[in-house]
Protein 1
Amino acid sequence: MSAHTPGARIEPRRTTGVPYVLIVPAVVALLLGLGYPLIWQIITSFQKFGLSQQFGKPPEFVGFDNYVALAWNGEFWQVVGRSLLFCVVTAVITVVIGVALAQLMNTVGRSARLILQVSMLLAWAMPVAAATTVFIWLFDRRRGVVNFLLDAFPGVEMNRYDWLGNPSTFFIVASVLIVWMSVPFVSFAVYAGLTQISDEVMEAAQIDGAGAWQRFRGIILPMIRPVLSIVLLLQLVWDLRVFAQITLLKDAGSKSGEFDLLGTYIYKLGVASNDFGVASAVSIVVLLITIGISWAYVRELIKEDEAQ
Amino acid sequence: MTTAKLGRIALNALAIVIAIAWAFPVYWMVNSALIPNAVLQQFRPHFFPGGYFTTSNFAGAIADGSFFSALGMSVTITLIVVAVCLVFAFLGAVAISRFRFRGRKSFVLALLLIQMLPAEGLFIAQYKMVSSVGLLNTVLGVSVIYIAAVIPFTVWMLRGFVAGVPAELEEAAMVDGLSRFQAFLRITFPLLAPGLVASGVYAFLQAWNEITVAVVLLPAEAAQTLPLWLRGFVQASATRETDWGQVMAASTIVAIPVIVFFLIVQGRMTSGIVGGAVKG
């Protein structure tokens, strides 16, 4: 966009209340749907919800007790560790594959690229409920096509392998599903960045004797760095919010706590056990982790907004 | 030269193989939806419907009593969310792209941060709030939460479109004797149509696909949206044999409108999310 912004020109004449009136509806909607719950949640995370509260007794303030209890709760740390590990591994795999496919799109001929892009768009467009259901069927123990194909390899014994029945393979399926759903966004974003790199620069580097890897490291990587960091950041944040996928996969697999990530853990504490104090405390932890990760991204966007 | 050519052919072939692998789950969904369940239960999977082709899975999935009520819920919630978000977000976008005012920066910052917050981090509080006013299992309860979740990105997306229409056009119309409001309505508004369509489709996709908050706020079977209806098929498998033909037909029904709408706005969404980073 040009440095001269169209909007800025009217500004000196207009310092009335008009803009405030314009943002009122949005602000009210946000306060109602997010602001009020957030404040309730902060307060509740300092309160104790026990059996007597289920019978209508108002909860009492217990200071940081819920947080302290969490700090000593082994299951909580397991869930946090598992969620972070899952999130980082899935996000990194997504970005690596996404960049590789973007590079592939940029190298191949037009028809091959179009076929690849259409296929990526299909995966991207799939609603999460439908995608997860399809993956449950693909990895079905008895009649899933994945077990059938793996079993067809000589020496591989995968007939009736129960992917969703044990935690490590459960999370492999979840990760494959999320990588499948998220790679298209990464490759399209990075591909858009790659098309900005001029052919002359690449040719010059080639004439100077730079190999493919050198060109990637020396020219392409620095050029797409801004997109890459944003995309990685978004993936990290998005891969923390996988409640939907995990819940649906658990429907088909097991209800056990070993399959929980932060989202399903909070749900279990709050909605299922009515322990709103501790559930709120865990939610606050999740919000803080998210804000921590996304701060840099938001700052970038703000800079862009100001440059406009 | 020939090795370079061979390498090129190999890369093109690789791209097509990856394309096939990536589209496979979607293909498998449709394929399984078109094959009778008895055939799906055979040991050897069928990679094409061929002679088994049937549409009875779709009929069976829809005949399940709750389909139409779930469709009704989804349509109602989606319409409310799209309409409210478009109006509110449009006003907000005009405010931040046409005016410089005190608190503007905080407003933009808040929008961007809120947009990143996961539903998982707030749904317990939202559940408590909505249930305390007796709105669990209602369209209204879930719509309030969806609207708040969708507004930030729609404001951000529309802001780009509003800023893209030169204020000079409006000013010229004002010189020609139109009021500021008239100028906006006749000049700027029509130019914003693509932006409104894109934002509307974005809101549609969010509301239509949402399942996390729906699981929490719509626990009753009678209040299911389409994604929850779909979940019901898999949940039922705990107690009885899964009819995968029907489940895949149900998935296809949920996915098709989304895929169609998604293809319309895809380009805009990428550039909206990564902002100016792509332009470098």
Protein 2
Amino acid sequence: MAEDFVIEMLHITKEFPGIKANDDITLQLRKGEVHALLGENGAGKSTLMSVLFGLYQPEEGKILKNGKEVAIRNPNDANALGIGMVHQHFKLVECFSVLDNIILGVEPNKLGFLQKAEARKKVVALSEKYGLRVDPDALISDISVGMQQRVEILKMLYRDNEILIFDEPTAVLTPQEIDELMEIMRGFKKEGKSILFITHKLNEIMAVADRCTVLRKGKYMGTVDIKDTTKEELSRMMVGRDVQLQVDKKPAHPGDVVLDVEGVTIHNDQRKKDSVKDVTFQVHAGEIVCLAGIEGNGQTELVYGLTGLEKLSGGKITLDGKDITRESIRQRSKDGMSHIPEDRHKHGLVLDYSLENNMVLQRYWQPEFQKGGFIQSDKVREYSDKLIAQYDVRSGQGSSTIVRSMSGGNQQKAIIAREIDKDPKLLVAVQPTRGLDVGAIEYIHRQIVAQRDKGKAVLLVSLELDEVMNLSDRILVMYEGEIVGEFDPKTTTVQELGLYMAGARKQGKESK
Amino acid sequence: MNKKKLSHSNLNSSITSVLAALLCIVIGMAVGFLVLLAINPAHAWGDGFVRIIKGGFHDAPYGVGKELANAAPLIMTGLSVAFAFKTGLFNIGAAGQYTLGAYGALYCAIMLKMPWYVCLIVATILGGIWGAIPGFFKAYFNINEVITSIMFNWIGLYLVNELIYQNGTGPMYDVRNTRTLNLSKNAEYAQSIIPDFGLNKMFQTNSTTIAIFLAAAVAILIWVILNKTTFGYELKAVGLNKSAARYAGINEKKNIILSMAIAGALAGFGAGLYYLSNVSQWNPLNSTSLPAMGFNGISVALLASSNPIGTIFSAIFISHISVGGSFLSTKYYPTEISDLISGIIIYLCAFSMLFRGKIHSMLFKNADKTNVNAEPAPAKTETKKEGK
């Protein structure tokens, strides 16, 4: 052994019916390094990690721990080898305390009676050592997402894991929290723990990783030293072609007011509080206004209110001079509102319908597609084929593909095609690139800018600050249901936005 | 080219469904045979199994006529359940809707002496109302339709029994037979009986009417509504994804109520077909069991994978083995044995999804591989560009 590898996955091949998810992939993790695993969706990152955790048995290849071959048949084997993971979606019991969650599965006991005092000491010590600042007695349901993530981290530390895997850990964090997480990772490194960092965000890799392994479509593209590479090179390795990381857009020429929101308030009956409080803003033709904020600060509800999915408890919405406050969803759609919904599986698509049926989801009732209540299936097919060609939506069987079988990126493209082709006056796009890979993101961003340049008003809701900074002409930050600041992306910084998003600062009520 | 592909894949899935249903039937029959063997091995084959398989043909043409007369309402209750399934609802209340339909039909026939088609329409409307009420609760208060429709089954049964019986003094009640008045015994009810166009003569029965053709026609109509109209598009969208339907501006509350009302109407129509063909009369003293027709509808729908056209065939099949069961000699077997066999078949239908998957992958292994995985099919141009 020339080098000191703590875990080696050598020439792993894992096949599923019809697809090689991992094709001869090698990943070598050094002791005390932060190793990034980079790849688009469907590149095989999750499969590779599932192999490491014993959830899948590879057809070929072997796994070495400290130079010795090991067999990992199930997650318990992986745990025994000191491998721990923070999943993208946390695996926590909401109504348990932090401490209870940490010891869950390895409860210290004497004759079946819990011995929490010991566990507590260990948790507090670990928390201090790495600066995690977690209160062991708080309930999970009461703490922030960032804190919940730290509980997941503590779970690994409590089990004395040496190899820590982070699966897309920054997706749910504010810029400040991301910085803190990076600091925590560096702390682990100093202690000699090895970190595998799964992500598709290049900035974070550049900031914290030592080396990076890149996968593309199940194949191994290589491992590079971060100090010898650039973001552009990494993205080229990941996508297979040059990618424009910066959106190319001309200055905006805002026209008349298209969307006028006045004092909108929405009451949440379940939580018994207002999730949107007296929000007022305008979106003009030919500009992209972005609602930024951390998840759960009322953006979702505000969009529901605008699109008619939820009733307002106060305020007024005007679309192109017409009061639509009490209009139905269908009527708003007729009046020129398009909506790319946040949750494409819940709202955006009928997954068990064919692609063509989904393409007309907003228009099947129009005279173009029906005659006397009978759907003109040839017209629908024709239209769907046109959109598929125009927006490059890829699927197994074209228009007759069941949408459930399509990849997330292509599902999203189908929604975008449908909503843009309606030729709306206002396009409401909520996290249009969530969970998509770089290539698809680039495409969708270009479409949105093109809509703006055609003189449409665009309201973009995004949690990704890069996207916010890149795309918008004006930024509104939402915190706890209120708009706490309005910014010009050219003159503000991510850090400044972060402070407003976290509620640390607030502008006066001068924003319109 | 694309059109061909579509019909091809549709055809594949229908073939698969039919084969899965047939597989359920074959295995169910085999298990049923084992049960016959267990009860009475000496007579299991000739006096047992063969008679069930022969169904109505054991005593043709009478048995066949009886089979068809029973199949007609079964198609309707099957359609009722299948239609609700297609729109994402479980209509376990077909029995209650059927009960109300029976009352409507008999009231119009006996009390008002109306022509048969009017009686049928009234039966349909009453069934529809009985379905719409649970639909309303589901739509506006999100109360599970299964619970409400089960309660409405019993409410309907007691209500109808009471309306007919009235302590034995009800004008529709015939004390001697402890049932409602027999429509064919009295010439003044003749206009209320569904015409038979010689079918009774052909089958040597007195209850084989054109009901079976009416039921089949309705099944086809329902298929057209579900697959060809914007109304069907909406109903199915609501069934498959209520949130997305709402997002698309479909009034999902209205659709839920409508779809339960239609399901109820279908069951009510079925009751009309049964009682206006005078297959039997209503017994208001039976207060412990709901009409079996309602629950058998669930079996019919399951066996047909909720396909409206499929319900025609699965209803005839269920009716076939039930009639077969009734020809079993009670010396050797209880008549319920056919219910047991159809029960086993239906139970296997729960596995039919599994069968369907297996059959599909066996038959069409190569046909739609691309569909199996959620990965995007890489476009040809791109692979070329990469030029490995």
